Every structure is written in structure tokens, then in C-alpha cells.
Amino acid sequence: MAGIKQFNEDDTLERAMHVFWRQGYGATSMPDLAKATGVQRGSLYHAYGDKQNIFLLAFARYQRHYLDMVRKHMQLDDPVAALRAYFAYVIRSMSEPVPQLDGTPSARTRGCLTTKIATDETAMDEPVRVALRGMLEGLADALEERLSQPDARDRLRLAPKDAARLLMTFTRGNVVMERIYQGTEQLEATADHMIALLFKH
User: Fold this and answer.
1) What is the b/e burial string over 55-72, where b = at least 16 CB atoms within 10 angstroms of the residue's CB?
2) Alpha helices in 96-159 (DSSP H)
3) Separation between Cα atoms, residue 53 and residue 88, nearest integer Å
4) Average pLDDT, the chain
5) Cα–Cα distance for residue pair 93/4, rounded to 1 Å
6) What is the DSSP letter of 75?
7) Which of 79, 86, 119, 195 has the most CB atoms within 10 Å of its CB?
């Protein structure tokens, strides 16, 4: 029927997300997205309008999943253990190989989708900037939510909001370090040092 999508939208947006993650925003074209998703270019235009809208929908889907996983990993009773679990998830996520077009893992790690798009000047139209800001604000909110619980708040050297912002910013720096050193040991060690600085002994 006319106007009805003839493809699986979740699968299409998942595949599109991996293209943006692998290539960046500026280097990704509609033909690239059509090839990766298996959906004809005309159908993509008809369903989503343009590349930017496909990215925004794919990124919103990614953001929901990422923040759900962050909250899930911080459900531990001890706040130090909760933050260690948070960093373990974040480091593992950025250290996974990015899937290639044929679905096989690449030899290089995928890094962070948010940071990759944020450092691409061709992506910095306001709708994309707002989406990236929403992701970082959501991450800071999730961290503040856990750090505001009495078991954490009473041991923190900073206010929960300030500690959450510091952790969110620190995570962005860890992304850059992963790109350079391509290993988890140093990232895990510096994350442990950051946690130790945040809490009173």
C-alpha cells in the first residue's frame, strides 16, 4: 500500500547507525545508506526525507539503548562498584570492532559515536548539535541520579551534579585516549583513579 514502509525500520536504522559510526557523518552518502540497509535510495528519501533525518532517528534509537544500559550497569548497591560497572560498559562499548558492510568485524575499534559526530565539522548543523547535546545531558542526568542516592552522596567530595558533569567530561577524554592507545588497560586504570578522587576514604 502507498505510504506504508516496506522494510523493517529498526533493522534499517541499526544498519544506518553503523554506517555513520564507521564512516562519520560527512563521508556518509545516501547511496552508502541504501547499500548498507538494502533499501532503495528513493524509498529512503520517501520514508525519511534526507540523510540528516536518518541520522537523527538512528541516533535517537542509539541514545535510548545506551542510556538504558548505563542505568542498568549502575544498579549495584555500592556506588564505587556502580561507577566501575559504568566505566567497564563504556570502555567495552568503544573498544568493540565496528561492523563492516558484510557484517564481519573490522580490525579497528569503533570508538564513540557521539564524539565521532561531534568532531565532524560537516555534522554541526543545529539539529545534530541538539541531538548530541541531548545525549550528553542524558548521560549526566543518569550519573547524577545514581550519585544523588544517599550511599553515594554522603561519600562524595563534590555535589552529585558536579561529580556527574566531571565524569561525563572525563568519559569524553577517555574516548580520545582509546583512539590513540587502542587498549583498555590504561582506560580502566585512569577510570579507577577518577573514582578514587571523587569519594572520601
Assistant:
1) bbbbbebbbeebeeebee
2) 113-118, 126-147, 150-153
3) 32
4) 90
5) 34
6) -
7) 86
For 106, the 3-state DSSP assignment is: strand
- Is there a contact between 160 and 152 (Cβ–Cβ < 8 Å)? yes
Helical spans, DSSP H, in the chain: 9-23, 30-37, 41-48, 51-73, 79-95, 113-118, 126-147, 150-153, 160-181, 185-198
The C-alpha atoms of residue 122 and residue 79 are separated, in whole angstroms, by: 39
Task: State the Cα angle at 19 between 174 and 47, rounded to 5°.
Answer: 130
State residue 140's pLDDT score: 97
- Max intra-chain CA distance, the chain: 65
The grid coordinates listed for 19 are 554506517
pLDDT, tens digit, 9 for 90 and up, residues 70-104 = 999 999 999 999 999 999 999 999 888 876 666 66
> What local confidence, expressed as pLDDT, does residue 2 receive?
40
**Amino acid, res. 29:** S
Residue 109: what residue type?
Answer: T
Q: Is the pLDDT of residue 136 over 70?
A: yes
**Cell triple for residue 145?**
541520579
The span from the CA of 19 to the CA of 74, in Å, is 29
